[in-house]
Each structure stands twice: as C-alpha cells, then as structure tokens.
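Contributing new records

If you add data, match the layout below exactly. Sequence lines come first and carry their own label; structure lines follow with theirs. Keep one chain per record. Anything else will be rejected by the validation script.
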Amino acid sequence: MSISNAVNPLILRFQQSRSGQNDAPEAETTIVAKSPEILPNTLISVLMHDFLGRLQVILPVNCLLDVDTLNNMLDRELQAISPDDKTSIRVKNSLANTSALPSIIDIPCLVDRQVSAMDEVYVDAGDGENFVRFNKGALNVLLEYANEEQFAVPLAEISANCGESHNDANQITQAIEKFTSLRIKQRLEDTFELPPLPETAKKIIQLRADPEAGINKLTDIVETDPSLSAQVVSWASSSFYAAPGKIKSVHDAIMRVLGFDLVMNLSMGLALGKTLQQPRDNPQGLADYWQQAVWVSAANGALVNAMAIFL
C-alpha cells in the first residue's frame, strides 16, 4: 500500500469532522518527484523500543535525535529497534516503508515540536523516487494523532570539533567502547532470557531463608507438587537407602530416610530442572563443535598416513 493511499482515509475523516469549521485549513496531499529543494522540509521516522513497548519518533531530516533528552523526558530507556523488527512492522501494516506518518502503524507516536511550525512537509512515498507533500492542513491532520515534545537538535546548532583534532583518537575510542557495550547488552537481551522460577522453587528458596524452617513446612511444599511428591517417595523407597518398612507418605520419607537438607536440595534441583532445560536436539553449539573435532581429527590422521609414505 502506498503512503498516499494510507493517509488519505485519515485526511478524509479529519475533513468530515471539521466540515462545519470555516477556519479549518484545507488538507491536501500531492506526489512530487525527489529533488534537493524539498530536502529541508522532509520528515524522517525512527522506531524505538524498551521494556515498556515501542515508540515512533518523527523529526525533520535536518535535525539529530537527542536520545538522552528523549529518555530523560519520558523516563524510559529507548533504543532503536532491530532491522528485523522494522521489517516485521512494515509487512504487518502493508507499507512499502515505515515512513514518518503517525497513526499509519499501530505504535504510539511522538513528534518533535519543530514539525508543527513548518508550512509544508514531505514524506518518502516508499518507491525510492517520489515524495508525498503535505500542506499545512494535511500536516494538522497528522499531528492530531500524535504527541509533541522537543527532543531534536538542528544540525546548524551543532558545532564541529575542528579545533581539537589531537583528541580525535580518544573520542573515537570512547565512541567505540560505548557502542560495543550497548551491542553486547542488546545481544544478551536478544539471545539470553531466564524463564521465571516455578512456584515450588520460590517456596523452597523462601523456606531455606526461614530460620524456623522444619520438616512440616517442607512437607507441605513438596505435597503441593504431585510430581515432586512422587519423586521423594520413590527415592526413599529405593534399595539404595534400604529403609526398613514401607514409606507411606512424604513426611515419612523425609523424617525416616532422606532428611531435611537432602530433600531441600533435591526438590530445588527438580523444580528448576523443569524450567532450565537444554534444547531437545542438543546443547547449543556442542553438536557442531564435536562434528568439527571429528573432521579435524580424521583429516590429521589422513595427513599423517600420507606423510608416512614419503618419509
């Protein structure tokens, strides 16, 4: 779906809602060819996210997004979304690209205040050649569906650090270190996520920290988990412990055979084992590692045999 087709229903709905207002400016959109003249009034969109959710940020192309100011203003930890997530959003909304249009995608939008002061704006049409022009009336339509804040810095206000070339190496090193730490944090968040602890494990951890913990409290926790109860009774009844008589209950298994500490440790291991499991196919990377090790070993053996012929 083209950008113009996506925004036309919004403009039509806006015009209908203001049909009785004489002072309402007429909203118009037109397709124009890409040219240097329209660049100063072009808008760009940045899709960001944190643990609270996603946010679309719109600002003029001749400005830089001040992420620190934005995060301090919203009390959030926003950062740019990954290219895969951006593609997913674009496909989900049937758009050629995620252009700088609020309300087109189902994500909260924040627009820099400098946009509302512009008489007209241009947005990439998504075909790589054309832009959609929005006059003041159409711009008002867009801003009806977005919040406004001041978070962008015009490029003209940024002074170049041309007089301190001797500090270039230090500044580059600091930038690389900051970027590297952010990338490591992002990769860890993307690839490593601990699942929540089971309820039984939480209760056992709390019981271990309880100075008045006893067999009765441990028995109550174990008996709430049928699988764990069966395991405890099975251990106590095994020939390894050779307990006299028949184990009739969890309390009997703890009191007569296994003891408080052993059941605490075994219960914790079983409870966590239900959650923290290795992949069903194989532990991460180990299959490939051993496969390569076998290949290298076989290749070395073949080389040794071949070399022996010539020695």
